[in-house]
């Protein structure tokens, strides 16, 4: 899978950021003579960071890390640190312990300070204080102004780490906060090994924009005196770097060079920590290393989750219930605790988590383990060996190796899950999935409130999942399911952590006037290449996107398709045969691969147009990247089950509630007709009106090279005056096609020579041919063949009450063929009654409209002209312009110019 570039030659968003930050680091590397520089990682943690800032960690009684001080110091020195510091949260215990052992250490701590007017907690890296001063600093941190004033009075240097990563209950941080920070801090961390490139570049450009005049203006605006905080506006801001490591994997790989003139001579009489503190106070600092992006944080969280799985103790139900936090926080902690505690019952799973932790630290699994492992799990051991080998022998490739292996593991485990799930279904007594109708599956789509019935089975009840022994099914699935859940969870959490402040980052970039995130949508669908009306409309949309180079790319999951401009293709990792429910094979996509494409492609919003696996992927990406997601509604599933099943109202309501739960998770829903819009915003679905966008499919221009079909070539004995009806659609019961025999039979009473041509295929094709033996069935037709039929036949008849739009109606009108349909959603938004076609209520009035149409030749010609005029109202440009506007995307500038000239 190769990433596409914008057609105008501009690099993708992240490529530009990378180039900008690499230039900065290169310049910083040339600032000082390396012989007179100390190396320090200003920001790292060990096991004494035992009370996390994150609410969930406190509820579950988890430390931020279990890393021993000795191991951290060893890694720091191995990675080139000539000065050691440990910046645990709100305590310097590790530094004092090292001093007591005779180690030279720069005393440090990351204090969590409260910003009262913003309801905000801000981290402040602080160095060179005494034990007595630590006590006072912990008292002062309840108010950041008092804290910073005390530090300045006592010449205690401070650094503001990751300025754009905030701990706040305030979703709408006033950007005046950063004006105050500019006045209150002299040193800023612009390189944090666990934060992403976008935050780092934004921070860098903001810090470099802080001129003396601007700082003084901010000080006056907010009535602050820079001198009280040890800040001289005339001195350029100082930038630093640190790894923010919690695992001992990346400690020392990011940090700062401290310039000390005549360093080697001074080291003979002074300690390295004393000289480091001097350089820090003077601001003689240059950051070094690489930004983490989400890949490093993903590795750190995977290591952390692996240790949580083996070390978590039951936090207690009362603790969870009575701890501060929202109901969702408590429910999430309850579920998470139960997940990890359940894992601890499975020795195989626990061993594997231990192996993951060891591999990330560079320790290979024991050789005999691979021999002992079953065939299904040898692959997992191989991936762990790759990770450990890279950590020890190829550290420059470690991050890429781990993330590649995580993807490979995830895919392998999901294939194993699918294989074992099928096996469990085969062993399950009773009917298999293929034996159930849509109706029966819907009825069984319920979880019993008696949980023992779910987990242990209940032979009595058959109307829901009670007769499935879930515990037995999970027994064979527990290892791959739990491991893949943690792999996916660490990937989601690592990126979510970085982008939980996305709205703030966007507002900050706009205020800064640079580095604003690219505005691009990734459109997920699994019906682009199907043979139906939805695929036709999606293909038309993709063609228009390509033509005008709109900021939207499609992504499909398909085993054979190849990528094109504006089209990504991922291969399925599994498929589900749905032929009993609509001649479909459901492709299960690789969510990790899609997440990578989304990240590297610089996308910042999602569109999804199918309720299957892609909808779940869309919601996964929504949570992972904290981006808006939109759903494009092509199908009315309530109408579908109403017309194709015998489900009662209660059972249909069950489906409706599931749909409401799904659609409500999206930030917007696109609908194709007014009736659907009103339904979604009405009592049954209760979606906010501002979230529903009315759109339409656009018509493709008529291909003037296509000639009309000759009726005589199609229908034996026909001539050009023979009245011929035409229908093109998927031949399935919900399309209303079994109304056609009665309609044609009744119309023939007045129009004896009436013929009908049927194009399309589907599950009801054979039944319809038996019901209409004198009809001409031409099967599935290409776009050109359909155009020829539209041009050569007389009247399009469409008896469906199911379609949300009706692309075939628009295609017919485009070619001058009037259309006849029921007066229902979709058709009534397209056809103008008795102008470009007919809207009727039932089979009788449909037959009457056919008769009237063929009895008035003059009216037929006028209606054909009106059909073409009506189709012209559905041009691509205005529809796609509004579609982009509703998505919050910009219409291509070159297209605006073309429209203006026209």
Terminal-residue CA separation: 39 Å
- What does the largest sheet look like? 7 strands, parallel
By CATH, the architecture of the largest domain is named Alpha-Beta Barrel
Question: What's the number of helices?
Answer: 37
Q: Let me know the average pLDDT.
A: 86
CATH superfamily (homologous) name of the largest domain: Metal-dependent hydrolases
Structure class: alpha/beta
Helix content: 40-55%
Strand order, largest beta sheet:
12-11-10-15-16-17-18
Strand proportion: 5-15%
Give the tally of β-strands: 24
Q: Could you tell me the radius of gyration in angstroms?
A: 33 Å
Instruction: Characterize the overall form.
Output: elongated
Q: What is the CATH topology descriptor of the largest domain?
A: TIM Barrel
Q: Would you identify the regions where 5 or more consecutive residues have pLDDT less than 50?
A: 1-11, 429-436, 449-456, 895-902
- CATH class descriptor of the largest domain: Alpha Beta
Number of domains: 4
Briefly characterize the structure.
By secondary structure, the chain is an alpha/beta fold. The protein is 47% helix and 12% strand.
Mind sketching the topology for me?
Elements lengths: L12 H17 L7 E4 L14 H5 L9 H10 L14 H8 L7 E8 L4 E8 L3 H10 L3 H10 L4 E2 L7 E2 L7 H9 L2 E6 L4 H12 L3 H10 L16 E5 L12 E5 L3 H4 L5 H11 L2 E4 L4 H19 L5 H6 L4 H17 L3 H14 L6 H6 L5 H16 L4 H30 L10 H7 L6 H6 L13 H30 L2 H11 L8 E4 L8 H16 L3 E6 L9 E4 L3 E4 L7 E4 L2 H10 L4 E4 L4 H13 L3 E4 L4 H8 L4 H16 L3 E4 L2 H8 L10 E3 L16 H4 L9 E5 L11 H8 L7 E5 L5 H7 L4 E4 L3 H10 L2 E4 L8 H8 L4 E4 L14 E4 L2 H13 L1 H16 L3 H12 L5 H9 L1
Parallel strand pairs: 6-7, 10-11, 10-15, 11-12, 15-16, 16-17, 17-18, 19-20, 19-22, 20-21, 22-23, 23-24
Antiparallel strand pairs: 1-8, 2-3, 3-4, 3-5, 8-9, 13-14
Keywords: Transferase
GO molecular function, one term: glycosyltransferase activity
Pfam families: Glycos_transf_1
